[in-house]
């Protein structure tokens, strides 16, 4: 009959790694690295091999096995599992490193900071206080070999082999018989064979003094070396001297030693120790205390050890958000700790929390997520962005808080490369159209235009052709001056996305209208844009073969490289925005699309003053950019050159009245800039504005280049030969007949002061009708909002629907 005996070591759920032993306490145990077979998680395995004739040592090892299994304390080595056979003992604990090895490794990397040492010693003393005061046990083996360090840098007390009861009912303390351990015994034990210690903690406190000396000075050569503190910090020396005093009665209790070191100015009275103590008791803290702690935590994380932040602070932050309702205050320290993680760890630990945070309706959390999106956007994949994040982010476009709307707009610069076709070309454009046409805050309309210029390269060819020209044209009609400048620079950033026909028929006419804008910054950018586009058209006219090269990106698929400088220029979208919004709103409080207040254009000296003409601002419904493209009255765009990234948009935050910085040379990389100027009719003469335009050359020079002797082309007649007051007597039709059929000019129309053209009267009528409609609609909307607010209370994030 065969008997099959199973090997308990082989069936043990943990296995030793094929690595050399790390060592451990001298004598009985050997420390090995191991892992759990089921999960692969790392552990430490202490192994004792039973030897014949070593019954006393075997009994000591079994007693240590039992003590470690039954003692549970955060500062004592954590027991996980164990195996006891006739041949060996296996004790599985959390993954740790002997303190001696840890100090040597850190010394090679620059050494430990006093903050880390103070907290490590605090943990060992606290473990001794637990054993002596709560368990009535004497450790009897406090030394460098009995202390271990986990992956978070936490010090754990082990080496429980020679522990005995302080009450004396367990017999005499075990005999060590190992010189390396006996050198830590206090002098009173060597002087007499009887136990002359007066206090139960005296011997362990002496050994603690030896441990402190070794931590700061290295291995202890002999007991006499304890008289010289060496490198022990001055704040710790007085308390250290009490530990190694010859009189055992004066050695303090471990609890008293902690209080002395935690006193003001003490070695353990620092922010790092306070943070650790708070984290240990965070579950019983009040919500107000937790809020204050997390607000102050981010300021101190830079001085804390990296391992501590990753393995101790991060789990507490995740737990506080998941179960403690900590809210938005955990975001700043969470992302700061996330910098220490690898890409894989970030995906596993941070991203699930971030995705869950986006679904929250807490405004504070939403705005902090948007402000700090740059820190985690690279770890988000496209499916996660499109299905779990973007549907929640778009609610910010409809929020009643302007700061959230603005941050939502700026976050699109980071999200756009990861959005799919429907979200980017349909959903996002619908919200952008609504913001640019209807938002009451000028800075938000301005940022919407800026963002559109930056993400234009990611749009599909059809969307670019339908949206960009109309959107930037609308921006140039905005009563808020920075929005008009943003429209010009939007054309400049996307100049390679327009055909030559669009440049000539749609863009340049709008730019010409901006050359008499009341804001000098807008005029300057318009002139530069006109020169840039004219140069582009002229180069194609001189060499038609360049047309294909110039228009290669017009019908190309979306690509980040097509945007040129616009795609790479992202500085404004990752900075603070609340100050930008508040400054611009204060500087232009009345710049709302529903109530345009365009100032009169300056008139050159010697010319009749233009008649005041109200400029209607027609709101565009969501998703209908095409209507704006066909409306010539709305198309007043200005396009600047392709130096989009050189414009100093940061000046909007520094000075609200200085709209944008200017560039001197659009064709070169010149860095000279001139701040934008806001027109002020009370402090600025009209001559200065117009003289600046004439400084580059006289307008007559271009008309005098033709030689008077040069014959006119055949069929060309002088202007005096035309019959301007009636029909042409000749049988030949008047070349202006088609124009007169559509617009019948009055004989005295050129002498009138109205320079707005022949359609001024009709435009005035349309403007008045549009204004009345807007007023009626605004009153209706206000009444509806008041009814909803009275019935349902204050609105929450994401509940407002599209108008």
Automatic annotation (TrEMBL):
Biased composition (Pro residues): 599-617
Keyword annotations of the record: Coiled coil, Cytoplasm, Cytoskeleton, ER-Golgi transport, Golgi apparatus, Phosphoprotein, Repeat, Transport
Superkingdom assignment: Eukaryota
PROSITE patterns: PROTEIN_KINASE_DOM
Region (Disordered): 589-803
Main localization (coarse): cytoplasm
Example GO molecular function: protein kinase activity
Sequence ranges assigned to domain Protein kinase in this UniProt record: 14-314
Biased composition (Basic and acidic residues): 633-643, 729-749, 760-770, 777-790
Location of the protein in the cell: Cytoplasm, Cytoskeleton, Microtubule organizing center, Centrosome; Endoplasmic reticulum-Golgi intermediate compartment; Golgi apparatus, cis-Golgi network
GO terms, biological process: vesicle-mediated transport
Pfam families reported for this sequence: Pkinase
GO CC annotation: centrosome; COPI vesicle coat; endoplasmic reticulum-Golgi intermediate compartment
InterPro entries the record matches: ARM-like (IPR011989), ARM-type_fold (IPR016024), CIK-Related_Protein (IPR051177), Kinase-like_dom_sf (IPR011009), Prot_kinase_dom (IPR000719)
Biased composition (Acidic residues): 644-656, 750-759
Role description: Regulates COPI-mediated retrograde protein traffic at the interface between the Golgi apparatus and the endoplasmic reticulum. Involved in the maintenance of the Golgi apparatus morphology.
Recorded family membership: Belongs to the protein kinase superfamily.
PANTHER family documented for this protein: N-TERMINAL KINASE-LIKE PROTEIN, SCY1-RELATED S/T PROTEIN KINASE-LIKE
Protein name per UniProt: N-terminal kinase-like protein
Organism, scientific name: Phyllostomus discolor (pale spear-nosed bat)
Primary gene name: SCYL1
